[in-house]
Structures are given as structure tokens and as C-alpha cells.
Amino acid sequence: MLTSLSIRDVVLIDHLDLEFGGGLGVLTGETGAGKSILLDSLGLASGARADSCLVRHGCDQASVSASFDLRAGHEVLELLAEQDLKVEEGGNVILRRTLGADGRSRAFVNDQPVSVALLKTIGEALVEVHGQFDNQRLLKVEAHRGLLDAFAGHGELIEATSQAFEVWRNAVEHRHKAEADAETARQDEDFTRHAVEELNGIDPQHGEEATLAAQRTVMMHGEQLVDALAEAVERATGHNGAESKLQGAIRTLESVAKKAGGRLDGVIAAFDRTLDGLADGVSEINRLSRDLDPDPARLEGVEERLFALRALARKHNVQVDALVELHARMKEQLISIADGSTVLQALLKTENEARESYVGVAKKLSDSRREAALELDSKVGDEFVGLHLDKARIVTEIKPMAEDDWRACGVDRVSFLVATNPGVPPGPLKKMASGGEMARFMLALKVVLAEADPISTLVFDEVDAGVGGAVAEAVGERLGQLGNAGQVLVVTHSPQVAARGNKHWKVSKSTSANDEEEEKLWTRVDALDAAARKEEIARMLAGRQVTDEARAAAYRLLSGVAS
């Protein structure tokens, strides 16, 4: 709810701070006192259109701040979180707007700059003004379906419809993608078929390029390697080679070993091991020499395959090792082309089944909406009678939408229509009603939709205009009913309405002048205590001259409401 409103330099208001509470709050005062300025200020803070004429004469800018205390889980708190806007502890949200004399304005939420559009979105979710503004929530046709659903308690049906719609749309998208893929595949079929034939012919294997490259390197230097290995064997085993010299050394040591008393046994054993290792090395060289067959035909075969693989990889703009996956993917494409019609038929069947499921649950929702619409029309009609709008009737119109317009919320377009007189076809609210009737229509709808449309703060501007007596009493009773469920602010000239208020403010004009300054005029707002309130209601009853009879009538009116 709205907890405070701070106004600086707006028209006749130079400095004003107001504190608000729950229930029904009333603002009264003489015509022209400045009540509309308060509503203009609240509208400015909540994103309404800004006009430079709101800036107080002689000032550079006007400023308005509106503070709201919101319950946990409020949609505005979720919206602020989505926009990465901080929220004060306890759910306090402050909307602030500055307006320069040049017409430029700036918007803030909790002292963080935001666009005016975002401020308006937030403001519309917090404050609803009936009377002066054209952007009343109930006048927006796009909101009517949601209000009817909330009134009817369609939460589960809406969720089921939304889920069925999501399944259907996913099925449609899946089929469209499959069709697009199939069409692309058909367009590339000749190329794909030729590519598969090429890949079938070469049959690429993982890691084959590295293996072939290594073989080619070795084979290109085969003769040189074989000659080197032969020379190594010769140096190891040939005449006067390492083997012969080691054997000679061992024989020499063995001839004197007994004379050394066993001290040469270790040396001789080490030489024996060296000789064994030399023999193993020679054996490995011989094996390698046999493998290093410098056959030109074999080298040519290795190079031919290696170069063929690399050329094919360049053709398809992939690495050689990726040819294996490319080969598999292209073969699958050919299979999908061949089986395309079968796959598409299966997807179309799935889509049709999903559509039928959505249509079925959407029909249940539509049927329930029509039942709820009759109940809503009846309850609003009862309120019309109580508000002396006996000739008026409301019609909740439900029309089917074209299939292209079907949404997660169903297949219906919902509109609240009103007929003001018998024999007149119902039409849109804002086109069929006068200003006074409009306010009472809105009041009747709000009473019925109070739980379905939980706006934090409701404002009614002269909802009692042009009525009195029993009608004014009925208006006051319903405003009090709404106030019991939340926060309602009403600008009124009706004592019957004012008497219903939980809190009462009087708006008046004051003047000041001295020898140095010209006379100045400004608006002031005073919170009334019980005595001052009785006096103000007496003024509303009597007019300019407040009489004792008027005071007595005010007392009876207040006492009657209290009882």
C-alpha cells in the first residue's frame, strides 16, 4: 500500500509530506482547493504523462516521491528483481519523478534511475486511479481475460492450458525444423551422395594420417637408415670391432684371474654383460634393417593414400581425422532423405495429437469462462442496482480467436461491455458511459473483482459526482467495503462518503503576503481529528454557513457509520 507521498513545487504545493495507512482515506475541500493536484502528483510519481505546467511558478523543477510497503511475493518485487533493481529490506519501494520547467523528466525507483516506461509499468501495478485518468486498468481490454480468470479461480485450468500449448508449440517447431532439414538435405542430395561415394572409396580411419605420415618419413630415408645400421653392425661385430675387443679383454683377464685371488671376477662379469647387451643391440638393428625395406612402390602407395586423405579433408574444410564423423553424418543424411516422409508423417501425427490435447483443455477453460462470465455479470448487475444504475447492464463478451492468435492462456478474447440504457447494444466501457457513470461502473466492478485484481492502492476521484442521498450512501458503503480489504483513497464532495473514511484530510488554499513580497497562494493539506472532521462534514452538509443543525447532522452521520 501507499505509505507516504512527498511533493515539492507542484503547481500550488511548495512543500507537502503526507502519511497514509490502510482502509478508506478521504480527501475533501472546496472546489479549486487543489485536490486534483494531489492526484496529479501521485500520477506523476507512478509514471503518468508529465506536463511542464505542473512545475510551480518560479521554480526550476518539481519533484514527487511515493513510498509503498509491499507484501512478500508481490509482482512488483519480482519485476524489480528481474531488472536488477535493489529493494529495501521489508519490501519498501520508493517511486520518484522529477520534472523540469523545460518539460524534461527523470524517473527513479529506490533512488536508481529507470526509464519512464518502466516507472509507468510499476506504477500501474501499484496504483489504480478512477476518475481523471484515461489509463484506468479496467478500461484496458487486454486485462479483462486475466481478471475474469482470477475471478473464476482458473489457476489450475490456466496452468494445464499453458502446458498443453507449450507441448503443441514444441511439436510444431520440431516438425518445422525437420521439414527445413529435409528440404536442405534434398537440395544437397546430389553433392551428399557423391561425397559419400568418395568417402566410401577411401574409408578413412581415426589416427590414420599420423600413422601414414610417420611411415612416409621413415621410408623416404630408408637407404640412408639401412646404410647407417649396417655400419653400426660392422663397428660392433666386425674385425677389430667392439665385440672382438671385448672378447679379447675378457680372455686376457681370465688368464690372470687366479693370480688375482678372485678380485677380477666382477670386472669379467661386467664385461660379459656388456657383451650380451651388444649382442641384443645387434639383433635389434638387424630386425630394423629388415623392416626398412626401401621399396619405392610401397612408398608411393603410402604417399598416395596420405595425399588423398588430405585432399578430401581440404575439400570438405575439415581435419583429416574429422572425415570419419563427416562420413557417418553424410550417410545418415542420405538415410534421412530416404526415410524423410515417414519421419515427417510421424512428427505431424505427434503435432496433431498435441493440438487436439490443447484444444480439449482450452475448450474446458472456455466453457468455464462462459459460466464465470454469467456469474460476474449477475454480481456486477446487483452492484449497479445498489448504485442506482438500474438501467445499466454489463456483458462479459467472450469471442473465439483465430488459430494464429491462440496462446498459452487459451483461445478466447474477453471484453467487459456495458449498456447504459434498455435497447442500446452494449459497447466498450469508456465509450458508453459519462464521467459520473464511469466512476460508478468502475466502483461496481472493483467491488466484485476486489480479490481477483489486488492492486495495492485504489484511488477514486469524485466517484460520487452528481449523486446524493441514497446513491451517495451506497457509494460510500462500497468504498468502505473496498477499504476493509485494502487501501482506498477517494476525493469526494459527499458527506455520506466522507463519513465512511478511516482517515480524513482537508485540502484548502492559503495565502501569505508581507511588505517585501507579493501575495502568494498555496495548497495545504491537514489531517483532521474527530472534532475537525465533524466540522468539515458539517460544512459539506450546510455549505458556506455552518449551522448547529448541520453539526448535529454531521454527528448523526458519523455515529451512524460507526455503529
Radius of gyration: 46 Å
Overall mean pLDDT stands at 84
Strand order of the largest sheet: 2-1-4-5-6-7
Biggest sheet descriptor: 6 strands, antiparallel
Number of helices: 18
Query: Looking at the structure, what is the overall shape?
Result: elongated
CATH superfamily of the domain at 2-137 and 454-528: P-loop containing nucleotide triphosphate hydrolases
**Low-confidence parts lasting 5 or more residues at pLDDT below 50?**
none
Q: How many strands in all? A: 15
Please state the structural category: alpha/beta
CATH class of the domain at 2-137 and 454-528: Alpha Beta
Main traits of this protein?
563 residues, alpha/beta, Rossmann fold, six-stranded antiparallel sheet, 15 strands, 55% helix
Describe the structure.
The chain has 563 residues and is an alpha/beta fold. Among the domains are: 211 residues, Rossmann fold (3-Layer(aba) Sandwich), CATH 3.40.50; 148 residues, no CATH class; 35 residues, no CATH class. It is 55% helix and 17% strand. The chain has 18 helices and 15 strands. The strands form 3 sheets. A 6-stranded antiparallel beta sheet has the order 2-1-4-5-6-7, covered by helices on one side. Helix 15 links the parallel strand 12 and strand 13. Helix 5 packs antiparallel against helix 12 and helix 14 crosses helix 15. The longest helix has 64 residues. It is elongated, with a radius of gyration of 46 Å. The model has no long low-confidence stretch (mean pLDDT 84).
